[in-house]
C-alpha cells in the first residue's frame, strides 16, 4: 500500500476513525506540542537567566514540540482534504481548521527552543 493510500485511508476513517476522530487526534497532537514547547521554552529561559547552558532535556522538548506540531498539522490537513460536507455536519471540519494553527504554533515554539539551545554558552 502506498503512502498516499495510507493517508487517505487514515483520514477517511479506516485507520484513525470517522467523523470527528481524525480532527480530535490532530487537535490533541497540536495541543500536546504547544504544551511541550511552552514548557521547554520556559526551561530554556530559566537556564539562560541563571547563566548555565540548557540541559539536553530542553533540546529534546523542543524537538518533541516540532514533531508533534508537524504530526498535528499533517493530520489536520489530510482530514480537511478528505472531509465531506461543510462546517456543522459532524465531520470534524471545524476541529481540523483549528488544529492547523495549533500545530504550526507548536512547530514555531519548538524551533525557538532549539535556536535558544544552539545560542547558549557552553559551560
**N-to-C CA distance:** 50 Å
Shape: elongated
**What is the element string, with H for helices and E for strands?**
HHHH
Label the structural class: mainly alpha
What is the overall number of helices? 4
Query: What is the average of the pLDDT values?
Result: 81
Number of strands: 0
- From the alpha carbons, calculate the radius of gyration and give it in angstroms: 17 Å
Defining key terms:
elongated, 123 residues, mainly alpha
Briefly, what is this?
With 123 residues, this protein is mainly alpha-helical. Helices cover 76% and strands 0% of the residues. It starts with a helix and ends with a helix.
Q: Any overview of this molecule?
A:
There is one protein chain. The longest helix has 29 residues, at 21-49. 37% of the residues are buried. The N and C termini lie far apart (50 Å). The chain has helices at residues 3-12, 21-49, 56-82, 93-119. The protein has 123 residues and is mostly helical. Helix content is 76%, strand content 0%. The protein contains four helices and no strands.
How do the strands and helices of this protein lay out in sequence?
Blueprint: H1 3-12, H2 21-49, H3 56-82, H4 93-119
